[in-house]
Amino acid sequence: MAEIVPGISGGTAALIVGVYETVIASADQLIRGVVRGAADLVRGRGAARAREHFARVSWGVLLPLGVGMVTAVVLGAAVLGPLVESHPVQTRAVMLGLMAVSLIVPIRLVGPRWRAGEVLLAVVAAVGAFLLTGLPAGTVTDPPMILVAASAAIAVCALVLPGTSGSFLLLVFGMYAPTLAAVNDRDIGYLAVFMLGAVCGLALFVSGLRWLLATYHRVTFAVATGLMAGSLRALWPWQDADRGLQAPGDDLGVVTLMFLIGAAAVAALLIAESALVRRKRASGAAVLD
């Protein structure tokens, strides 16, 4: 659902529920297996090496996640899209609450003590995200298929990078409305080209991201924190048609309530996750005893 709303990051949602690094590692192995299998099939070497990669995929996480994502995109395009259109201020307020509290996740993954370099990187990333989310929306009425594939390849990178929104990038490129319409109209040709571009973009991006997570874990999440913080600009409730920020209006009380509802939802998830982790650790200690 997060990827349908411009300004909300699917990577952030994965961080909140604790599956982000598992998904990145599994996606990397899945892509490697497909590429290795295709290459070995052409060379007549069989599928043994591809199966080794597939065996490292956390299918118990990836398959339910995939089913949930496809279902949410189909339902969300029909429900959430009109909701954003009819109640933009209140919807952005809820999303702002969700995202603001979500900053706790990457901050905690960096560690309790931030180094000066990590703070600087986070600030630079925040400024970049703030400027990006202020770009005016583009408009494309009849996009060529090469543009559909290219925009999908770029947007899918934002799908797996916390703090960046794939749907927001589509909005900037002018491809958000055509893509949402294709989902609602079940335009198979458009969606097939879009998926092909997304798969190619993911294949090129996810291996590098996994390497960054393994090699520069703290730095990667420091940058993610900055991206998430800067992207909060896109969710400021009061905006004009060109995304210019405006002062709070007469509906400040309602908007504040919506913000608190969103914040409370994520806070409840984080509290539940912390309790679950403590319970698992306690169980492990009991077994050791």
Automatic annotation (TrEMBL):
Keywords: Membrane, Transmembrane, Transmembrane helix
Segments traversing the membrane: 59-83, 89-107, 119-138, 144-161, 190-212, 252-272
UniProt cross-references to PANTHER family, sorted A to Z: INTEGRAL MEMBRANE PROTEIN, POLYPRENYL-PHOSPHATE TRANSPORTER
Species of the source: Mycetocola reblochoni
Protein name per its UniProtKB record: DUF368 domain-containing protein
Matches recorded under InterPro entries: VCA0040-like
Ribonucleoprotein is among the record's keywords: no
Domain of life of the organism encoding this protein: Bacteria
Record's keyword annotation contains Transmembrane helix: yes
